[in-house]
Each structure stands twice: as structure tokens, then as C-alpha cells.
Amino acid sequence: MPAGVIADTEELLRTTRSVYVGDRDAVALVDQLEARLHEPLRLAIAGMVKAGKSTLLNAMLGERIAATDTAECTRVVTWYRYSPTPRVTMHLRDGTTARMPVRRERGLLAFDLGGRTAEEIEWIDVGWPLEGLSSLILIDTPGISSLSTDTSARTARFLTPEDAPSAADAVVYLMRHLHGSDVRFLEAFRDTAAGAGASVCALAVLSRSDEVGSGRIDSLLSARRVARRYERDGALGALALGVVPVAGLLAEGARTLRESEYIALRELAGLERAKRESLLVSADRFVRESTATGLSVSVREELLSRFGIFGVRLATAVIRGGVSSSSELSDALIQQSGLIELQEFVQRHFRPRADVLKARSVVLQLQALIRRAPKPGCEAVLAGIERFRASAHTLRELALLAEARADGLPLPEPQAREAELILGAAGVTASARLGLPEGATPEEISRRVHTQIDQWRRLCADPTADRARRDVVNAVLRSLAAVASETVATRALRPASHVDPPRRPGDPAGQDAAQQSEENEGGLRRKKRLQWFSLGAQRHPLG
Asked: In whole angstroms, what is the distance from residue 68 CA to residue 105 CA?
């Protein structure tokens, strides 16, 4: 990722401010974009109604803040960002704001709308002292395809507006199974970024994954097979960087596990097998009056609401397996829920690319401003936008990774897998791109990157390669050049291996002076092109 992308985008904003001086609305927009450039990455949680968005958000936060019932506040876009002290602010449709009292009910943050309806509120801003929010803004959105068209419209207006870029930099999209509405939403979200290249900044989550296996202990295994099948689906593969199965209710319960809940689950685990199995045969049976356990119906109902029948079954099995404390149980359930895989994906793909994704969002807003209200002098802004589109290699990597999942790369299988790694499929660190262990030394990385550069240059020089293959090879070489630059690799870049051009029928074996001159010129052109690859990684997206 170019180190100066934020500084270069700031320069573009200064240029825009000078062009629109005197235009109060435009200058106010530039001020907002400058603030956006320096705030954490905006990650939206979206999905159809009852997909488990707020539950997953609570699991990611590690605290029960987002409302998970059908209250009025679940129909409003709600932002969660870091604040030293808790604060909740309503932004109303008429442009005014109102502070809301901060209080909890049954462990959840209670939103007091002061008698207002969701239709009167544009969005709610929640500031909370959680360390995880210092580098990531999480945004909870109302369900799409809701029976309330106004509720669905709020999410569409925020994430996929028709006349402006999305207000989110990336999205985690929840689905219970692949539906046409899911594909249409992800297509719309991708299209909001069309002005900056066909980048893909979405992760699909197979939510409520325990339901895939009807709540059986092995439900997550079944869900992972379904997720892999969805990843190979052509329609979804081109729209999301991956599909991760998550049992959201289990993840939320595990991250907020109370000692009293551990004690209740331990009692269930200690029952005789026949009694335990009769209780856990179904959710209905679990909450009936029973002499099989000393736990009251109200306690069992609370366990069911917090963990689901799958979570209760899994927790008792884990405790019987040797877990002996609430903290150990919490860790084991989190591991089984799929939450860690989701967090690792965000850490691997979105966080390292945060500066470029934020800059892309700013550039798209500037593009929309110029389209909406052109001014004399806009040519300088447009030139900066074009430089970003041409140079933001990170976005090209994201697009190629999605293409690899949907249709495969136009390369032989071993090279295609290697190309995906280099483009960042397993992460953007040098060792991850090169397929080396995490603790690889700088010397190992240097040797590996130069070996790879030589290999991919030979592919680039292949005269039989079509344009699609050359485009992928060039992208891979640029990613390798960035790795070489980051690791301060100083070895002189050797020219590509010589490849004899195919002779025409009747050509003599020898070469005359003119032919040798042509080949020498071609070699010089190749050498210049290779030097461009090396320098390309050091260019800033707006430089």
C-alpha cells in the first residue's frame, strides 16, 4: 500500500477546496471528507431482516450494546465508534441533533428515542469506550427486503445510493442462504465503487450457521461446506472476497458469558446422559417443566435466548470434555462459533487496506461533486482522480481476488494459486504474499521475492500470452515490486530471460544486422518496462 496515500488525498482535497471557494455546501463537504480521511475504516453490517446483524455486531464488540429485538431503533442506521465516555446522539431528518440518555436494560444498551419514530431519525451515533472501536467504525443497518419499504430504503440510501457513493468503505453482508436479493444488494454495493475501478470490498457471512445442521453439534462443519460451495458460485464469487460461516448467537453469548450461566451449563453437563439428552432433544423440550434438572424454567429460557439450543448442546459437550472455568468455556465457544475466522478475515483484508479504501471513498465523493456541480478549474481535481484510478493497485488486487473465486485466473492451476497468494488472498504481509512462514527472516523474504520476480517476468515475456493473462501477470509483478520495496530489497533487477521470437517460414537460421537491431531495441523496451514495475510500487495513488 503506498505510504503517502493519505497525504496525497489531502492535497487533492486542498485543490478541490480552492476550486470551490465561496461555495458553502461544497466546502462543507470537503471538510467532512477530510475528517473522514482521518477517522477509522467504516465497516457496515448489512443483510436481510432477521439475518442476525445486531447479534453479530455485539459479538464483534464483545459487549451487548446493539439492540437485537424488533424495537424501533433496529429500523435506524446506527454507528458505533470509539469515545472515552459513553454517549448516544440522534441525527434527525430535519438536520438537528439530540442527545439520548445512556442506560442499560437487562444488560443491553437501551435507546430512548424520546417518543420519536424511526421515520424522524436519519441515524444514531453511539460513542463507546471499547478499544476495538479505535481502529474500526462499525455500522448496524436495518434489514433489506423488509416488509416496511421505508426501513429497506434507509439501508439502500446509506449503502447503495443511486446518485452518490456508499457511506461505508467496506461491508460484511449476512445471509441465511443465498437469495436473489443478496446478489442484487452486493451488485449495487460494488457498483457504487465503479468510478474507482471494479474493486470488491465485501465479505459474505453465512449467518445463523447452526441452523444449517438443525442445531446438531456438527452444524458448523455442514455450514463450512455450504460456505465453500457459495464461494465457488459465479454470481457471489465476483461480489464478495469470501464466505465465512458464523453462529452469531453462540459468538455473542460466548463473548459476554456470565459466571452464573457457566454454573447453569455445568449443571446440565453433569446430568445423567439419558436425562441430559431428553432435555436437549429440542428447544421446546428444553424449556418445559421437568424434574430432570434443578434449573428453573426461567433460567433455561434465558440460556436458550442467549445461546440457542445449538449453543447449549455445544457448551455442555465442551464442559464434559474437560473445560473447568467460565473463561475456558468462553474461549472454546468463540473458537467454535466462526467469529475468529471472521475477525481474521477483516484483519487480513480490510484493515491493512484501510487508507486506500478510505481514499477511494473520498475520491468517489469528489467525483460525484464535480458531476453534480462543475466549476472552472475542476480539471485539476479530475486529473488527481484519474491518477488515483490508474495507480490504486490495492483496488486492482481486490478485483482480481474476486475474479479468481468467480471464474478463476487465466493461468495454469499452480501459477493461479501462487498469483492469488501474491495478490493478498492470505494477507498482505510480505511472508503471506510469498507463502513463507510468519516468522520468515528478511533474508528469506528477499531471496523469495527476487526468485518470484524472475519467474513472473519470464511469464510476462511469453509472446504467446493473451491480453487477459498479461494483465494478471503485470498485476502480480506490481505486487511483488511492492514487497521488494517494503523489504528494502536492493538487488539489481535483472532483465527477463531472453525469449526467441517464433521465426517465419523460410527464415534463415542466421540473423542480419537489422534483425539484431530490432531485437536489441526490444530488449531495451523490456528493461525499461521492468524498471517501471520496480518504481510502480513506490508511486503514491495520487502522485
From this structure: 12
Amino acid at 253: G
Radius of gyration of the chain (CA): 27
Q: What ranges in 44-147 are assigned the alpha helix state H?
A: 53-61
Question: Cα separation of 513 and 497, whole Å?
Answer: 22
* C-alpha to C-alpha distance for 397 and 255, rounded to whole angstroms: 34
Q: What is the pLDDT of residue 282?
A: 93
Do 393 and 478 form a contact (C-beta atoms < 8 A)? Answer: yes
Encode pLDDT of 9-20 as tens digits.
999 999 999 999
Residue 148's SS3 state is: coil
Q: What would the grid cell of residue 141 be?
A: 443497518
pLDDT per residue as tens digits for the range 149-176: 666 777 877 887 776 678 889 999 999 8
Q: Do the Cβ atoms of 199 and 398 come closer than 8 Å? A: yes
How big is the CA angle at 142 (ends 141 and 144), to the nearest 5 degrees? Answer: 110
Sorting pLDDT into bands at 50, 70 and 90, what band is 75?
confident
Element housing 13 (H / E): helix 5-19
DSSP string, 158-190: HHS-SSS--S-SEEEEEESS--HHHHHHHHHHH
Whether the Cβ atoms of residue 9 and residue 360 lie closer than 8 Å to each other: no
Dist CA 190 CA 528 (whole Å): 35
Eight-state DSSP code of residue 38: H
| pLDDT, position 404 | 84
C-alpha angle 55-57-63 in degrees, rounded to nearest 5: 85
Rounded CA-CA distance 72/137 in Å is 22
List the one residue out of 256, 255, 225, 249 whose CA is nearest residue 174.
Answer: 249
**CA–CA dist 537, 473 (Å, integer):** 15
